[in-house]
Amino acid sequence: MTLQTPRLVLRLFCENDLERLVKLFTNPGFMRFSGSNGYTREQTGEVLEKFLRWKRERLPSPFAVIDRSSEALIGYCGFLHQEVDGIDEIEIAYRLHPDFWNRGLATEAARAIRDHAFRDLKLQRVISLIHPDNHASRRVAEKNGMQLEKETTFKDFPTEVFTMTQPKWRELANVGW
């Protein structure tokens, strides 16, 4: 499965992505707001294995974000399976290398994933979990049409929960948003 936007290719992860992911997950900017300054190669391998397991199980999973102009793997955007306040949720998560911040690329990727969630996967609800100090991520969620539902604690961090539902997505799509 591959999704394309004007500047990005989003494709499912494969085992060959480990070395490129290690470069991302050891970058402190990339790992900002994750509770870590960086992951070891082993920790990154565990993340990749989780992504691949979800793919094998045909569950919604993250996509590798590839910059069309350089063909570089610059981050991920897609679905994470989270438990928030005792409820199983599907999160639209996004994270890009700092060299690719402030260009609208996270929004471009997140919109493609949102549309895939509702149009192709027929999901009824998605969330995005955002640290209150992560203003850029909050803007991506808002530009993606998501609305703040609540504030909670997630993995020992204060977290804002942004949501969108299938009916809200259809309403936005019908007005040409």
Summarize the structure.
This protein is of the alpha+beta class and 177 residues long. Helix content is 33%, strand content 33%.
Secondary-structure element series: EEHHEEEHEHEEH
Low-confidence stretches: none
Q: Largest sheet, order of strands side by side? A: 1-2-3-4-5
SS field, number of helical segments: 5
Radius of gyration: 15 Å
Strand content: 25-35%
- Biggest pleated sheet: 5 strands, antiparallel
Helical content band: 25-40%
Describe what this molecule looks like in 3D.
With 177 residues, the protein is an alpha+beta fold. It has helices at 18-25, 41-56, 105-120, 135-143, 166-174, and strands at 2-4, 8-12, 62-67, 73-84, 87-96, 125-130, 147-154, 157-165. A 5-stranded antiparallel sheet has the order 1-2-3-4-5, sandwiched between helices. Strand 3 (62-67) and strand 4 (73-84) form a beta hairpin. The model has no long low-confidence stretch (mean pLDDT 95).
Topology:
Layout: E1 2-4, E2 8-12, H1 18-25, H2 41-56, E3 62-67, E4 73-84, E5 87-96, H3 105-120, E6 125-130, H4 135-143, E7 147-154, E8 157-165, H5 166-174
Antiparallel strand pairs: 1-2, 2-3, 3-4, 4-5, 6-8, 7-8
